Amino acid sequence: MTGCTQYLDEDNLNLLDGATFVFLASDAAASKPPIINWLEAHDVSFIDVGMGIEEIDGNLSGLLRVTTSLPGRRGAARRRIPPPTLERDAYASNIQTADLNALNAVLAVIRWKRSLGIYADATDESHTTYSLISNEDLP
Questions:
Q1: What domain count does the chain have?
Q2: How far apart are CA 85 and CA 82, in angstroms?
Q3: Do the Cβ atoms of 21 and 85 come closer than 8 Å?
Q4: Which residues are bridge partners to 136 per DSSP?
Q5: Would you say residue 8 lies in a domain?
Q6: Domain assignment present for 93
Q7: Structural domain harbouring 19
Q8: What sign results for the dihedral spanned by CA atoms 98, 134, 137, 90?
Q9: Which end of the chain, C or N, has fewer beta carbons within 10 A?
């Protein structure tokens, strides 16, 4: 997909042909269900990342989410990926989230490397939520 300049949606899922692992990182939640359906139907592993940011007394807070879906282990991931919504949070309007996007991406890559056996994996979890306000991983 080098040089691809299109947004992925239900009309161009053929762009995923040949993929063996996909990272989904889109704030367009409405486009995710057909993509996820295609990935599952084609037995492609994927990690979906998301975040919910809110403003509390002039400071940003929120959660980062990394959800892994592997063949034979789809149910837990499906339940953890939020359905599309029309609500927009502070993430949509606040420029100070580049660092949170970077952290979410790094958490996803670490999870991917754990699934490949590059990093040790004592928990084999499929879902991680990081709380910005408490600086901790939540169950």
A1: 1
A2: 8
A3: no
A4: 131
A5: no
A6: yes
A7: 13-138
A8: negative
A9: C
Segments of the chain scoring below 70 in pLDDT: 1-4, 85-96, 138-139
- Residue 135 token pair: 């600086």
**Which candidate, 49, 71, 32, places its Cα nearest to that of 127?**
49
Distance CA 72, CA 43 (A): 9
Copy the structure tokens of residue 124: 């084999």
What are the tens digits of pLDDT across the range 20-50? 999 998 877 778 889 999 999 999 999 999 8
Q: Which residues pair with 42 in a beta bridge?
A: none
H or E element, residue 64: strand 59-69
Report yes or no on 51 lying in a domain: yes
In a domain, 94, yes or no: yes
Nearest to 50 by CA among 10, 13, 1, 84: 84
Q: Give me the long-range contacts of 133-136 (CB less than 8 A, separation at least 24).
A: 133/56, 133/61, 133/62
What are the φ and ψ backbone dihedral angles of 38, each rounded to 5 degrees?
-65, -45
Expressed in percent and rounded to 5, the helix, strand and coil fractions of the chain are 35, 25, 40
Give the 3-state secondary structure of residue 31: helix
Round the average pLDDT of the chain to a whole number and report it. Answer: 85
Q: CA-based diameter of the chain, in Å?
A: 47
